[in-house]
Design brief:
Number of domains: 1
Largest sheet: 4 strands, mixed
Radius of gyration: 16 Å
Number of strands: 4
């Protein structure tokens, strides 16, 4: 697959657009049927959205919070893997584009990871700090 990218730069742009488009579809699927324990941990700032598309811990988690986040992350990994295969992208590329959307959709007070690795709480009137490459995902519908 890498060799094909090098031989056809136009294809890279097309495939990147497809990855971003499908990542937009993944965001609602990742937010459905949330576990009440997950909702509580998220609201309390015990878990947050990382730049890699998975949940992380802004502070040391309890065993229960870790279990909840691990469960969500396993589900996310499965979704990312399935959708990346259909888009001929890597799991990491697909997870990153989904992370862009998930971070943008954080609610007030929820935690997210900035590109420099620091944790922030979403505030009113201020967009979350995200990787500049996220702008391409923002331009897509959904």
């Amino acid at each position: 697959m890498t060799v094909q990218f090098l031989r056809n730069p136009g294809r890279v742009a097309l495939q990147s657009a497809a990855v971003f488009a499908l990542a937009a579809l993944a965001v609602p699927a990742l937010g459905q049927a949330r576990d009440p324990a997950y909702e509580a941990a998220r609201a309390a700032g015990q878990v947050g959205e990382q730049v890699d598309g998975y949940l992380g811990f802004p502070s040391s988690p309890t065993a229960e919070v870790r279990r909840v986040a691990d469960s969500v992350n396993i589900t996310r990994r499965r979704i990312y893997t399935q959708r990346a295969l259909t888009q001929h992208s890597t799991v990491e590329e697909y997870a990153f584009t989904t992370a862009c959307r998930l971070i943008l959709k954080t609610a007030l007070g929820e935690k997210y990871q900035a590109p420099d690795g620091t944790w922030h709480a979403r505030t009113a009137g201020e967009a979350p700090s995200r990787d500049p490459k996220c702008a391409a995902a923002d331009a897509l519908p959904g």
